[in-house]
C-alpha cells in the first residue's frame, strides 16, 4: 500500500467517523437537537424551518459518511479513489451548509469550528 493510499484511507476515515457519528447523534436525540437548534436559530430567517434544515443536513451527513466509508473499501480493494472523492465532495457540501447556518445565526465560534473541519475535507477533494 502506498503513502497516498494510506493518506486517503486516514482522511476518509476521519470524514466517515465525523459524519456518521454526527448523523447518529441527531437521530438518537432528534427532539432535543431540534429544541436546541430552535433556540439557536430563533432570530434568523429559518426560525420556522429548523426541523427541515436539520433533516437536510442529516441527509447530507449520512450520504457523505457512507460514501467516505465505501471509498475506504474501494481504495483498499482496487486502489480507486472515485467513491472516496465523491464522499469528500459531499463532506464539503455538508460543511458549507453547516457554515451557512452558523453564519446566519451569527455564531462565529461555531463557524470557526466548521472551518477547521473543512480543511481536511477540501484536502481530501484535492488528494483523491
TrEMBL record:
The keyword Membrane applies. It comes from the Bacteria. The chain crosses the membrane at residues 6-24, 53-77, 83-101, 110-127. Keywords: Membrane, Transmembrane, Transmembrane helix. This is DoxX family protein. It comes from Flavobacterium limnosediminis JC2902.
Amino acid at each position: 500500500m502506498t503513502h497516498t493510499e494510506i493518506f486517503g484511507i486516514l482522511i476518509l476515515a476521519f470524514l466517515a467517523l465525523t459524519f456518521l457519528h454526527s448523523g447518529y447523534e441527531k437521530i438518537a436525540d432528534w427532539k432535543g437537537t431540534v429544541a436546541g437548534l430552535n433556540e439557536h436559530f430563533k432570530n434568523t430567517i429559518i426560525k420556522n424551518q429548523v426541523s427541515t434544515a436539520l433533516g437536510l443536513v442529516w441527509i447530507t451527513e449520512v450520504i457523505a459518511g457512507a460514501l467516505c466509508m465505501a471509498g475506504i473499501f474501494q481504495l483498499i480493494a482496487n486502489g480507486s479513489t472515485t467513491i472516496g472523492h465523491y464522499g469528500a465532495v459531499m463532506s464539503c457540501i455538508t460543511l458549507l451548509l453547516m457554515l451557512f447556518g452558523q453564519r446566519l445565526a451569527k455564531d462565529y465560534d461555531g463557524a470557526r469550528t466548521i472551518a477547521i473541519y473543512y480543511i481536511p475535507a477540501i484536502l481530501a477533494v484535492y488528494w483523491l
